[in-house]
Amino acid sequence: MNATVTASRSAFPARRTQQELWDGYFAEHYSGSDLARRVFAGTGIETRHGTTDPLLEDVSTWSTGQRMERFAADALPLGTEAVAGAIEAAGLTPQDIDLLTVVSCTGYATPGLDILIARDLGMPVGVQRLHVGHMGCYAAIPGLASTADAVAARSRTAVMLCLELTSLHVQPPTDDAEQIVAHALFADAANAVVLQPGGEARGLRVLDIAARTDSARSALMTWDVTDLGFRMGLSPRVPAVLRKHVVATVEDLLAPHGLAPADVAGWAVHPGGPRIVEVVQKKLALSDEQVAESNAVLRECGNCSSPTVMVVLERMVAGGRLEVGDHVVAMAFGPGLTLYMALLQVT
């Protein structure tokens, strides 16, 4: 028996346009750097969301302790909104939830979001909990895999929450191009999905998972805990590594099911940046329509780390172009360098 994603809800904090962020904060932060201006303009992002607004408060000199205090304060209402929305959309109540998985790499607190959200929503005292931490942008897929396995093996009803507050980790000014790119791309979001045992459940059935890690290229993407928050390292060589591995990983995922890329109706590609989507589209010979949701999420939300691919999936399902029986591939990329993919089927 497979687990099925029966509902999905996303939640976002306040929104700013990319131009507002540049004009109101980052232009001065980078002392009018022409490189920074071109990077911000070239992301393909029009709007982003953040619980901390750099136009109102500069967190770049905050200690990690200050940032973690803020994470605890801001993450709880955002995560609760997404989880409550997903449970309601599935036609359930919090008392129906047996397992709560929380995925995040941008903040830590104990008691954590898993405990506090379960408490505030009134989940059973026996609810089981899982925290997936510091895996980065691809973490939604292994989180989905572990949660789906529990649902399938023990007939549990589960919720998985992916939540990232990257806006808490603005760094002091630097001429490091990798840091500029990170500040130009990343944003905040939360997404929650309900998973229920297969059978007659309607939604996206989780069929399989594939992963590939190129550990020889591990230095190309990093997420380091420093005294001034978490610092991103993001090499421009990442798309080239993705180009090398994406086709083989897709084959690893599809071949055991007798499928080829042409048999897949939906492609939820984590939009880590415009070049990431372009590489995947070209290597897999996908149409513009097949990556439309990924590009739209990048344009309207930016790269929100782990929730991003789930937001793409949510929009794909809501768009109405998928039919019962269609196969969908969700893929995301992150430190390692790691590719993670899930094969889903519309039920």
Question: Which series of helices and strands comes N to C?
Answer: EEHHEHEHEHEHEEEEHEHHHEE
Count structural domains: 2
Tell me the fraction of residues in β-strands, as a range.
25-35%
Main sheet strand line-up:
5-4-6-7-1-8-13-12-11
Radius of gyration: 19 Å
In this structure, how is the largest beta sheet organized? Answer: 9 strands, mixed
Question: How far apart are the termini?
Answer: 13 Å
- How much helix is in the residues? 25-40%
CATH architecture of the largest domain: 3-Layer(aba) Sandwich
Task: Show unreliable segments.
Answer: none
Any idea of the CATH topology of the largest domain? Peroxisomal Thiolase, Chain A, domain 1
The global form is globular
| Nearest-integer average pLDDT | 96
- Tally of extended strands? 13
What is the level 1 CATH name of the largest domain?
A: Alpha Beta
- The number of helical runs is 10
- Secondary-structure-derived class: alpha+beta
Can you say what the CATH homologous superfamily of the largest domain is?
Answer: Thiolase/Chalcone synthase
